[in-house]
Amino acid sequence: MARNSLYVLLIAAGIILATTGDVTCFTAAAVSLTRKMRTQGLTALLQQDIGFFDSDSNSAGELTAFLAEKITKVQSLTSGSLDGGIRMVSCLVMVIMFSFVFGPWQLSLALLGIYPVLGACMGFVAAIMSGNADTVKNKKKGDHAALTKQAVAEKSAGALVGEVVLAIRTVASFNAEQKLYDDYCTGVDRIEKEERKGAFANGFVMALGNMGMMSVMGFMHWYGQYLFSLGETTFKGTQIPLFMMMGSMMVVIGAVAGMLDIPTALSAARRYFQVTDRVSTINAFDEGGATLPSVRGELEVRDVVFAYPTALDHNVCRGYSLRVEAGQTCALCGPSGSGKSTIIALLERFYDPQAGQVLLDGVDVKTLNVRWLRQQLGLVGQEPVLFMGSVAQNIAYGKPGATQAEVEEAARMANAHTFITESLGNGYETEVGQGGSKLSGGQKQRVAIARALIKAPKALLLDEATSALDNESERIVQAALDEIMAKQKRTTIVIAHRLSTIRNADTIAVINEGCVVEKGTHDELLGQPGLYNSLVLSKS
Q1: How confident is the model at residue 360 (pLDDT cuts 50, 70, 90)?
Q2: Are 348 and 299 in contact (CB under 8 A)?
């Protein structure tokens, strides 16, 4: 007994070493896998064309929740299920080996026959618990991945939380807290309903699986004692294999329990590969494409037909043609929804037209390197977007590796240097807050203009850059833009609602229903009846 007890202690010491190495290695592998999946997942998202993010299934909240939470579920496939599966197989192999060494051949053969039955039971339990019989198909945009109803509910609720946080000021301004709270409660109620629905079924099936395993153990114990009573084996030859089999059954039960996370992990893995396997038609990371030795800044759209990916049956551009000479300022005006902002999106190559060409200095932008092309264009939108960080960091985003001197020069050109140095407590090191919340609307817009100017673009694209500002902020920002357009003489396309900006443009293009219907100077267009004349009169 003393000797056997010592053997048990040695086995216990071995278990410490084996389990420590087991858990450490598998956990390290799982953590490394999750890190790679997160970095590769973000890279894949950054490589996607803008049309990918227009889809409802790829909202900011859903993608944020996916990268932050769901992708960690894949760890269970490495550190949980895979680890448990390997442990189970190893244990079963050892039981069979010891059975043949210490036990009678009859007991060993019975054990070999029982294991397939156990495997079938375990597979049945796993199939039921994984919810494969209760899935839904997402058939939008060719996405045929199967998701459990619970996963769909969790996805919806998680996306709502992310979007509420990102737009909390809008939520507060419309007193929408209660409505969004109610919507979220509806989502979590759906999750609870699906979890409750599966609770009894999962518990009953798990109980059946455990009962089957215990029945097998009971049968093997009875059969071993039966062989002992016939004198076919010794007590030792019966007990050692049975003792090890009982331990292996515990491992099998643990492995089955570990499979509870497999459905969520597989769902996350499917979603991950949907993103990473998607080949984007417009990839800013692609090193291919030509670059021009010099850029004049001549812009042209020629017979462009375009519809957004989410509304392919509605053409926004219908034979759009427009040419802007290098160094000139072209103002686009027309009714809302006529296609003014769409042209800027096509010039930036956020999208590719279904027909026609978009040209820079006479070269189709499809043949140019995407990153190089966007470096030649400076875009200032209606709603400036700033990132967490300092004012200097936000301006420097426009030109990787920009020096402090370049940052300050760009701020001066944008009429922002004075307020940065005099009104902000830490000057260029002042934190702008989430979305630029610590700056006023006019200040944010001037920082955005400086960010566009720091890369010295050959063409400046102004998409209603002052329309969201109050009168005083609009006057200051517009003065900065007027100075830029007057002094620097770079090609500029401006969409504006201010008549003074339109009047001073070299060329005015009037857009209506996806086509250029009128083109000329302010005086030329005002002197003839037409849409521009009507627009001017409506603003008077």
Answers
A1: very high
A2: no
